[in-house]
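> forwarded from #structure-qc
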């Protein structure tokens, strides 16, 4: 299978290409420069793989939740590339990709994925691995950190929400924690492979972002208090 995957929903820019059983990857702490760095890195990994966009079986991207601007950049670039090359898309939840990354790195099979959502909130979802699939125990949601303990339990925690709110791990009595876990492109690609094999890749026009939170502006009082989106 020939697959390109990328994510721009966090401060990390992560890209992976699978061709002939070989992975070509780029992971970079891009900050706010995703829009400048994404396409050049895509060109690099495709050139290293020796294929073009039209040769791909599908393009997968982190569909959110995450940074509103980052999610829009990822979705927009994925749609543009897919339209131009006539390639289908696979939108992948960034929270499920964090669970997949935690499994690839640590072998964890029950994961609470948690991303900092700014505005004193976190994006969370709980997953349980059965065979080679993830079962959703708690659908992606946005909530206050103090409310996380009320959702479905998980044995391990992963994602930068735990770095933003260090007390969460002790409140949840987690057996293991990886606050540095991100929705890596290789994890997104691994999840997308099942969708492509099952014929569930979609046209570019049907590949939509997953925002969870639909509010994208702060009040004056919130800005003055230091809140961030």
């Amino acid at each position: 299978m020939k697959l390109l995957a990328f994510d721009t929903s966090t401060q990390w820019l992560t890209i992976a290409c699978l061709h002939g059983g070989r992975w070509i990857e780029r992971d970079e702490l891009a900050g706010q420069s995703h829009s400048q760095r994404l396409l050049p890195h895509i060109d690099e990994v495709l050139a290293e793989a020796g294929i073009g966009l039209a040769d791909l079986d599908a393009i997968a991207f982190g569909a959110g939740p995450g940074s509103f601007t980052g999610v829009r950049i990822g979705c927009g670039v994925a749609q543009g590339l897919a339209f131009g090359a006539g390639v289908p898309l696979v939108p992948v939840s960034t929270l499920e990709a964090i669970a997949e990354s935690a499994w690839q790195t640590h072998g964890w099979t029950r994961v609470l994925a948690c991303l900092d959502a700014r505005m004193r909130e976190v994006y969370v979802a709980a997953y349980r691995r059965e065979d080679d699939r993830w079962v959703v125990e708690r659908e992606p949601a946005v909530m206050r950190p103090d409310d996380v303990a009320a959702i479905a339990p998980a044995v391990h925690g992963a994602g930068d929400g735990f770095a933003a709110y260090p007390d969460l791990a002790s409140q949840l009595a987690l057996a293991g924690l990886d606050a540095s876990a991100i929705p890596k492109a290789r994890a997104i690609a691994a999840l997308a492979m099942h969708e492509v094999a099952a014929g569930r890749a979609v046209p570019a026009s049907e590949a939509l972002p997953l925002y969870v939170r639909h509010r994208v502006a702060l009040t004056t009082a919130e800005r003055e208090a230091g809140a961030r989106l």
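QC bot note: The mean pLDDT is 92. The chain is about 35% helix and 30% strand.
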